[in-house]
Amino acid sequence: MDPYVIYLTGILLVSFLLIIVVMVQNPKGGGLSSTFGGGANQIGGVKKTGDFLEKSTWFLATVLVALILLANTTLGGSSTDAKILQGTEQQDNLPADGGLPADTPATTPTDNAQ
């Protein structure tokens, strides 16, 4: 499997998780922790949910940026598309002396006059 496809799949997964984590948070300080009362005596540590969601947002954002950079480096590796975009594939067929490629027939103006 191509590394670019692996990175692209990771980008999509991390993006989806980041959307979910951001949607659960409340920008005014409430969010999931205020839904359960926010008291200090809550079972399961719901008071710390805000900290967990904030840390997971930063972590997922960092992973997303890293995956995007990695995908960008693998995109231009040995791809034929990158050569076409740069125009180097056409130059690969030319001989070193600057003449015509070997598979191109050489015609002169006198050949066409007959």
TrEMBL record:
Span list, region Disordered: 84-114
Keyword DNA repair: no
Keyword Cell membrane part of the UniProt annotation: yes
Subcellular location: Cell membrane
Similarity-based family: Belongs to the SecG family.
NCBIfam families to which the protein is assigned, alphabetical: secG (TIGR00810)
Source species: Neptunitalea lumnitzerae
Keyword terms of this UniProt record: Cell membrane, Membrane, Protein transport, Translocation, Transmembrane, Transmembrane helix, Transport
InterPro entries: SecG
The protein's role, per its UniProt record: Involved in protein export. Participates in an early event of protein translocation.
Chief place where the protein resides: membrane
Polar residues bias (residue ranges): 84-93
Record-annotated membrane-spanning stretches: 6-24, 57-75
Official protein name in the record: Protein-export membrane protein SecG
Organism lineage string: Bacteria, Pseudomonadati, Bacteroidota, Flavobacteriia, Flavobacteriales
